[in-house]
Structure formats: structure tokens, C-alpha cells
Fold:
Amino acid sequence: MNELRVEGLTKSYGPGEPVLRGLDLTVPSGSLAAVLGPSGCGKTTLLRIIAGFLRAESGTVSLGGRTIVGPDAHVPPERRRIGIVPQEGALFPHVSVARNVAFGLKGADRGARRERTEEMLGLVGLAGYGDRMPHELSGGQQQRVALARALAPSPQLVLLDEPFNALDSALRAGVRADVRSALRSTGATAVLVTHDQQEALSTADLVAVVRDGGVAQCATPQDLYGRPADPWVAGFVGDAVLLPGTVGADGTARTALGTVSLSAPPPDARTGTVVLRPEQLRLTTPETEGAVRGTVTDLCYFGHDAMVTVTVAGHETPVGIRVAGPPAVRVGEAAGVRVVGEGTLHP
Structure:
């Protein structure tokens, strides 16, 4: 088993400059976890401590039940059985693709190294590319080679440090899917560090949102998006509609958008912030029964969908409504807004 367990990790870069503040994180064996957070939150520091490139001030890191970081333990990076996929691949430019992949296969005979190299290149969709040089590959192909190099020694854990940043949007989704498929094929446990919310939600089995050096919430992508721990997490992992609400005896909340059903309202809570997603709002005509009347103030068209911004009475901040395809309204027109589904309440 290759479970990663991080407990109470702390790290500072100077007096009064704490980066990690008792961070806890558990990644089950064979899972891909995304560590998501804003710049400066500590996610790269966490990765470097797990890899062995930095020393923690306190706390422990264990991998497969073996302590690799602790008060009396600091296993050298080369003995941790951890593969690393850095930003932009970082391939050795002067040697072939095959020799890049075989770099970590120390101690194996030539035939075994060749066989393992060919196996890994086939796994990442680059069979037959072994004789090429890195500069002859596209950016996406270079990232696949970097993954093959990381997987070749059969590591217990693979760390991916924002590996898709240098790719254009047309390539990014395809390479992400290929990386995820390769990791699952090998059963490797993996940690992906990213600041891209869409990347984290679409790629990982678990998403850990880091804030101020700690994990604000760690959950499946579905639970994180549908049941965020607080309004900040809700706004960070996607577009959110935040509404002051008053809870009634029936467990619903009265808001500027009308009465909203709540999923698991906190006990004894009487007021709080109701969190909804833009796709839970429906754009209707002003006369629709049960709809709140508003005025369209902005339109953003994205092709597959659009965001319609509507101002409603009793709520200072305009609300965003996600609609499929081109919107059938114009800026300045009156519209109705209706809530569908349940919101979450945060005192």
C-alpha cells in the first residue's frame, strides 16, 4: 500500500513568516489528489517537503507506512521512492527520449532497461519515439516523457508540480486525460499541485484546498463543489452566488431570491450565508410565478454557455446565472430569477 499521510506539518522561511501551519493531508493508496490554492498558500512548499528538498520544522510525513519526515527522520530524496514531474518537463536536452526515460533505472541490465523504457513510452502514447531528441517533441509530448521518466522506477508516489502550465488550452485537456489514465494504469499514488480550479476538479479523485498554510477542505470534487466548507472555499473552487439568509422553522432560508431549500442546515442556525452555484439559477420572464424580478446588467458568452448578470432588489451584489448557449436577453432588459435545487448555509 502507498498511502501518503501528512500530519501537523509546519514550515517558515523566516521570523514571522509561517508558510505551513500544522497542515494535515491523507491521500489513499492509488488515488490522485490535487492540492489547490492561491499563490503563496504553501502548496509548493508542501510538495518540496514531501519530495525531500526542504526540511519541515515539525510534523510528520509517512508513505506506505514508512516515516520519511519526522522529528528523528529525514530520508534522503533519492531513497524515498518518489517520482517527480516538474513544470515544463525539465528533460535532459542532450540525450534521447529513451535515455531520459531510463535515467532512474539504476541497477537494471541493459535489456531490462530497454524493455521498461518501451513499456513506459507505450503507456503514455509515445511508442516509437525513443530515438527522438526532446527538442523534436511538442510541449505536450515532452510532458508525457517526463511522466514516463517519473513512472519508470515504479515509485510509491508521483508528485506533479503544475505540469500543464506551459501548454496552451487546446493541448491541456488532452494531456491531463493522458496523465490521469497513465497514473491509474500503474496504480500509483499521486499528488498534483495546481492553482487551476478546473484542472483540479476534472483530474483528481480528491481535492485539498489550501488556505493560509492549512487545508481548508479536502473532499471529492463533487462534494467540494456541491458542499463547500465555507463561502471562501465556494468562491475559490468555482463561481458562487452568496446570499444573506434567514432560516425558517421548516429548514428553508429566506433570501433576496426567494425561499431556498437547504442541504443539512446547521443546527440552531438562524441566519447565515446561503451558497448557490450559477447553474442553480434559472432565467425566466419577469412574470413567471415564483421568480424574483431583476434587471440584466451584463452578458458574457463563452460558446458552450453564457453568464448572465442580473441585479435584484434587496441584494447589493448582482447575481450570475449560467445558461446554455447564447442568452435570449439583452443588457437593460427586465428578467425573472428562480432558484432550483438546494443551497448550503454557513453561519
About this structure: The two ends are 40 Å apart (CA to CA). The helical segments are 43-51, 97-101, 110-123, 139-151, 169-186, 197-203, 221-226, 231-236. The longest strand covers residues 18-27.
